[in-house]
Amino acid sequence: MKNLAFLSLLLIAFSCNQMNKSNAIVSGTIKNPQTGKAIYLFKIDGQNIQAVDSTFADSDGSFAFQFKPQEPDFYVINIYQLQKMLLLHDTPLTINTEGTPNGNFQITGSEENQLLQEFMNLRQTYDTQVGSLQSKLQTQQLDESGQQDIRNQYESLTKTTMTQAKTIIEKAQNSFAVLQMFSLLDIENEIALIEKIQNNLSTKYPTSEKIKQLGNEITSIKKTAIGQPAPEINYRDLSGKDVSLASFKGKFVLLDFWASWCRPCRMENPNVVRVYNQYKEKGFEILSISSDRDEQAWKSAIESDKMTWNHIPDLAVNQTISINYNVTAIPMTYLLDKNGIIIAKNLRGQALEDKLVELLKM
């Protein structure tokens, strides 16, 4: 499950205009305004952000944005480095905040945004808890039993969080806000729900590019469904050797999409290492595809986590391999049979080993 790229922003100063706050799509009050320090509004565009407006708080802490969106879309408001995602369209929002890093931050005016904030809080809590478990796994001297206990906690946390996410999604399924909520779902097993949501939203927002994109992603998911042949992968490994996915024919292959910065990925790596070392001589192979942009961080994580199998950096701007496999969140895995047919997805923890035992008949 990957973190959104907008969480670290480069601030760019733009010309600012004051307006009638009663007509603003976003307005609010900052309890502790900072003189001369701008408030920014960014639009989320895939994994990128684009600045659309900026303003300053008045002496009483009040502020408003002149920007008017033409159709519903997702934005990030940055108030003195404190960032929150917003869904903006035609319903005015009111923000009240203390303007301090850990201070109160309230968004009112739209049920859609309440649901969006509920999901984002769940996402943040999950990421924080996973980070804590990862830290314990990496910094404490744990025996195998202790490490397994941490992994069990991670699996339990992930399962619980997925259930909570689905509850929020079902409440938000007729709202544009739901488009930001699929990252905590088991996409492959919830494709029917997602397709239903996409069909409903297509009728409600027929011109939305994001909803059209979701339809394209659903089509791609179906192309890489269980029972379909895995798309070919041709790559150059760490040693510079050209290799193809077809060269692994005759072995069960785990395609592992990950990144060095992905906490859930790093949490799962010790389990994958253990399984690989146990079954690599029995017809099991792994091919890891990283979405890292920092080559040194990628290589360091491989060495640190003792991932002694095949690795590819999917470093092209369009991340070709990830697109072909419709990877929209990591970690993501595909298990292929000896003929390159997809037979399972997103196997983690004990489930991965159980499947291999079944396949290798041990």
Provide the succession of SSEs: EEEEEEEEHHHHEEEHEHEHEEH
Order of adjacent strands in the largest pleated sheet: 13-12-11-14-15
Please estimate the helix content: 25-40%
Report the β-strand fraction as a percent range. Answer: 15-25%
Provide the structure class.
alpha+beta
Radius of gyration: 23 Å
Largest sheet, described in full? Answer: 5 strands, mixed
Low-confidence stretches: 1-19
Would you identify the CATH architecture of the largest domain? 3-Layer(aba) Sandwich
Distance between the terminal alpha carbons, to the nearest Å?
Answer: 32 Å
The best one-word shape is globular
CATH topology of the largest domain: Glutaredoxin
CATH H-level superfamily of the largest domain:
Glutaredoxin
Q: Give the class-level CATH name of the largest domain.
A: Alpha Beta
Question: On the 0-100 scale, what is the average pLDDT?
Answer: 87
How many strand units? 15
Q: Count up the domains.
A: 3
What's the number of helices?
A: 8
